[in-house]
Amino acid sequence: MVQQVYRRHFISAIGAGGAVGLAGCLGDDNDGSGDENGTETGNGDENLDRTLRVGVVQPQTGGLGAVGQPVTDAATLPVKQIEQADTSLSVDLQTEDTQTEPQAAISAAQGLVDAGYPAISGPLSTATTLQIVENVTVPNEVVQCTLGTAPVISAVEDNDFLFRTSTSDEFMSRAIAQVATEKAQAETVSTLTINDAYGQSLAEAFAEAFEGEVLDQVAFDPEETSYTSQLSEALSDDPDALYVVAFTENGIQILRDFYADFDGETQILGSAGLRNPELGDNVDADLTNITGVDTIGAGPSVDYFTDLYEDEYDRETTQFTWQAYDATAVLLLANAAAGENDGASVRDQMREVASPNGESVGAENFVAGLEMAASGTEITYRGVATDVVFDENGDIGSGSYVIYSYDESGALQLGERIDIGE
Amino acid sequence: MNIATLLAGGRTRLGSHFFELLVGVGLAVLLFDLLRRLVTDTLRVFDLFLFVKEGIVLGLVIGLAGIGLALTYSILHFPNFAHGDYITMGAFAGWVVSYVIAGLGSFDLRDLFLIGVRGDAGGVAVGTSVVQTPVAIVTGLLVAIAFTILATILIDRVIYRPMRDEGVITLLITSVGVALILRYSIAFVWGQETTTLTANSRPQFTAPGIGVQVSTHELTLVACTLVLIAGIHYLIQQTKLGTAMRAMADNPDLAAITGIPTERVVLATWIIAGGATGAAGYLVGLETGILAFNTGWTLLLLIFAAVILGGVGSIYGAIFGGLVIGIVSNVALVWIPSDFTTAAAFLVMIVVLLVKPKGLFEGVTTA
User: Fold this and answer.
1) What pLDDT is stored for residue B13 in this prediction?
2) Are the beta carbons of B61 and A225 separated by less than 8 Å?
3) Among A145, B28, B57, B96, which residue is least crowded by beta carbons within 10 Å?
4) Per-residue confidence at A45, pLDDT binned at 50, 70, 90?
5) Distance separating the N- and C-terminal Cα atoms of chain B
C-alpha cells in the first residue's frame, strides 16, 4: 500500500512537465582534461586527497514527499559508502528539499550553487527539473543529473549540463507495445489513460510505437466514482487489448468495473500502477488477462545495491532509488576524474567515466572506482538501474522493464525482462 | 416612462422565450442525432443503456447525498461545506462496524478497524457483500445513520449553534473549517489511501436483449434510496414537525413569533439530514466498493450542482437534480470525450438556471 502512494504522487508530478523545448546540445567534449592514461601520475596524489562536493535536491515534502524520501536516501548512499570506507578522498554533501514546488526547487538549487557545489543530483519530477535547469544550473554552469521521465527533458537547451539516469517514458511505451504484439498477440488496442501529462504522453508514445491499430483513445478523470462508461467507450470497437494507464487506486476501480460490467475477455495491458501485489486482494476476479510492464533496477550491480540499501535504511528499494543512486554516483566519479570542484570540468568527465573500455566500476567497488578515476585510470561506471551510457542529449539510451502478470489465485508474477535500446 | 418600461419588459420576456426556444431546439437536435447514431450503428444500444444505467446510479447517489444538504440549507440558510465530509464520516463509521461483524474471529480486530487500509482484512478477504454478509451490511447501514446523526448534532451544538445569528459568510467559512478538520481526522487514522470495501457485487442480473448488467449492490442502492425518500417525504408532508420545518424554511422570524420552537426544529433537521447523509455515505461505499478520506469531498461539487439545479432547499429537487447531473455526465460520452463530461453536466446546470433561475423545483419549500 505504501508503494502505491509513492507511485501516485510521484508519477503525477513527473508527468507535470512543462512545454519547454528547444533542441540543441553541445557536441563532443573538446577540452577533456585527462583521459589518456599515464599522463597524470604527477598530480594523482593531489587528486586522491581532496574533497568531492555534491548537492542532492529531492522532494522531501509536498506531493512527492513520500516517494522522495527513499529516493533521497538512495541518492546519498554513495556518500555514505565513501564516509565508511578507508580512503583519503572525502566528500561534502548537502541535501535540499524541493517541496515538490518549482519555486522552492529553484531556491533549493540556488542555495547549493551559492555554496559552491559544482553538481546537483536530482530532482524527481520533470516540472521542478525544468525550472532548476533554466534558472539555476545551466546559467551557473553546474552539472545536474535528474530523474524526471518526460520526453521533453531530452530537448532542453542545456549546454550539456543536464543529464538523467532515469529513462524517458518513450521507452516504457515501446516496451508495452512489444508486449502487446508478442505476449497479448493483439492487432488492435484501445487506450484508457489518466487525463494528465503522464497519461497523455504514454498514450501518444504507445500509439507511435505500436505496430497494430490503435482504435479508441479514452482519457479518464481520476476523481470519478465509476469508470464503467469510460470503459464502455474504450471497448466499443471491440479491441483485442486495452492499455490502461492508471495509478493503483484508479486501476483497482477500473478493473472492478471492468470485471463487473463486461465479459472480462479483453486482454488488459497495464502501466506501472497496475503492478501491485495487493491487486488480487482488492479485485475479486480472474486477473490472468492482465499483462504489463514496470521499470526495474537491472544494472550489473543492482543486487549489491539492494543489499546495501536494505542494510542501511531497513526498508526495501522502491521505484527510482536505483536511478537516484546512479545519479549521485556518476556525478562523484566525474568529479573525481575532473580533479576539481568545477561544473564545466565535471561535465566534461560525465561521459568519460562511463566510456566503454575502462575498468568496470559499480556499487560494490564504488570507492575503489573513485580512487581509480582520481588517479586518472579510465573507468566504466556500470549502473544500478541500467548501463549508464549517456547519449548526446545526456539521456540513457536504454531502459529495462519487467513483464508482470497475475496467476489464477491473483498473485503477482514477475516475468522476463525487456530491454529497450535506441 | 410607462411605455419604456413596457418595452423593456416585453424585450426581456421575448429574450427569455427566445432562450428557451434555443434550448428546445438544441435538445431536439441532440435527440435526433442520438437516434441517427443508433440507427447507423455508430452507437451501440448496449452503450446507450449502460450510460443511462450508470447515470441513474450516480444520480441517485448524488441525490440521496443531496437531501441532507438541501434540508440544512433551507432551515439554517447557509451552504454547509462540511456536508461532503459528513458523508465520508458516515461511510467510515458504518463500514468499520460491517467489517467487525463480517470478519470477527477470522481477523485481528485492529485490522478490521482499519478496513483494509493496512493489515490483512481487505474487502475480498473479509468477503463483505449484500449476499454473503447481509447482517453486517444492514447493521453497518444503521450504524452509519446513527453515528452521523450523533456527530452532526454534536458539531451543531459545539460549533454552529453559538453562531446561529452570524452571517452566511461566517457560517460558510466555519463549515469549510469543519470540513477540513473532519477530513484530516479521518486521514489521520485511516491514511490517505483508497481502500476496497466490498468483495464483489454479485450476483449480476443481465437485462434481457440489451446485455447491460445490474449488480445486487446497485439494486440495493436504488431500493434504499427510494425507501429513504418516501420516509422523508412522509415526515415533511404529514407530520406537525414537517409543517414547522416548512414554516421555518419560508420565514424563520415569522415561525419563531408564531411559537414554533425553532431550536427543536433545527435539531430535527440535523437528525433527518444527518441520517440521510450517513446512509448516503454508506451506500456510496457499497455501490462503488471503494472509500477514501476524501470520497465525500470529491462528490460535494456534484451534490451542490444537483441541489442548485433542483432548486435549493427542495429534497425532490435534489434527487431530480442528481439524476440530471448523473445521466448527463454519462450520456454526454456519446458526443464528447470523457474528460469533458463533468463540464457538460455543469453546462446543463447553468442552462437550466438561465431558463429557470430558481431551479427546477423553484426554491425554498422543503418539498
Assistant:
1) 56
2) yes
3) B28
4) low
5) 41
pLDDT in tens, B312-338: 778 888 889 999 999 998 999 888 888
DSSP H/E element including B206: strand B204-206
Average pLDDT (A193-217) is: 87
Calpha distance A262→B342 (Å, rounded): 24
Which pLDDT value is given to residue A17?
42
Selected residue of A200, A220, A282 to mutate for chain B interface (largest B Cβ count, 10 A): A282
CB atoms A282 and B123 under 8 Å: yes
With CA atoms as reference, the chain A residue closest to B62 would be: A225
Which residues of chain B from 265 to 294 reach within 8 Å of chain A, CB to CB? 284, 288-290, 292
Using CA of residue B125, residue B126, residue B128, residue B131, what is the dihedral sign?
positive
Domains and CATH numbers, chain A: 2-12+40-166+320-390 (3.40.50.2300), 170-295+399-421 (3.40.50.2300)
Confidence at residue B9, expressed as pLDDT on a 0 to 100 scale? 54
Task: Say how far apart CA A69 and CA A125 lie, in whole Å.
Answer: 13
Q: Would you give the end-to-end CA distance of chain A in angstroms?
A: 34
Cβ–Cβ < 8 Å for B57, B222: yes
| Residue A167 DSSP label | P
Report pLDDT for A116.
94
Is B322 in the A-facing interface, judged by CB distances under 8 Å? Answer: no
Alpha-carbon span B73 to A109, nearest angstrom: 50
Nearest CA to CA, how far is B309 from chain A (Å)?
A: 20
Q: Is the ipTM of this complex over 0.90?
A: no
- Collapse the DSSP code of B149 into the 3-class scheme (helix H, G, I; strand E, B; otherwise coil) and give the result: helix
Element (H, E) at A209: helix A197-209
Contact between residue B128 and residue B201 where contact means Cβ atoms under 8 Å apart = no
Residue B64 has pLDDT above 50, yes or no: yes
Query: In degrees, to the nearest 5, what angle opens at C-alpha B20 toward C-alphas B15 and B22?
Result: 95
CB neighbour list of residue B29: distance below 8 Å, 6 or more residues apart: none
Closest residue by Cα to residue B61 from B360, B348, B363, B296: B296
Bridge partners, residue B3, by sequence: none
Cis peptide before B203 (omega within 30 of 0): yes
What is the rounded CA–CA span in Å between residue A142 and residue A162? 9
User: Residue B135 above 60 pLDDT?
Assistant: yes
Q: What is the pLDDT of residues B294-315, one digit of tens each?
A: 899 989 999 999 998 888 778 8
Question: Which strand ranges, in their side-by-side order, compose the sheet holding A241-245?
Answer: A213-220, A188-194, A241-245, A267-270, A290-295, A398-406, A412-421
C-alpha cell read off for A371: 580512487
Q: How does DSSP assign A274-299, residue by residue?
A: G--TTHHHH--S--TTEEEEEE---S
Spatial separation of the C-alpha atoms in residues B41 and A290, rounded to whole Å: 30
Backbone phi, psi, residue A110, to 5°: -60, -40
- Predicted confidence band at A80 (pLDDT cuts at 50, 70, 90)? very high
Contact B196 A281 (CB under 8 A): yes
- Distance of alpha carbon B53 from alpha carbon B219, whole angstroms: 11
Q: Which amino acid is at B156?
A: D
Where does residue B336 rank: exposed (0-12), middle (13-18), buried (19+ CB within 10 A)?
Answer: exposed
Which one-letter DSSP state was computed for residue B162? Answer: G
For residues A241 and A192, what is the distance between their CA atoms, to the nearest angstrom? 11
Pick from B339, B340, B342, B346 the residue to mutate for testing the A interface (most A CBs within 10 Å): B339
Can you tell me which residue has the cell 559508502?
A81
Interface residue B196 vs chain A (CB under 8 A): yes
The SS3 call for residue A158 is coil
Q: Is the peptide bond before B337 cis (omega within 30 degrees of 0)?
A: no
Nearest to B199 among A228, A230, A284 (CB): A284
Q: Cβ atoms within 10 A of the Cβ of B300, count?
A: 25
Mean pLDDT of chain B: 87
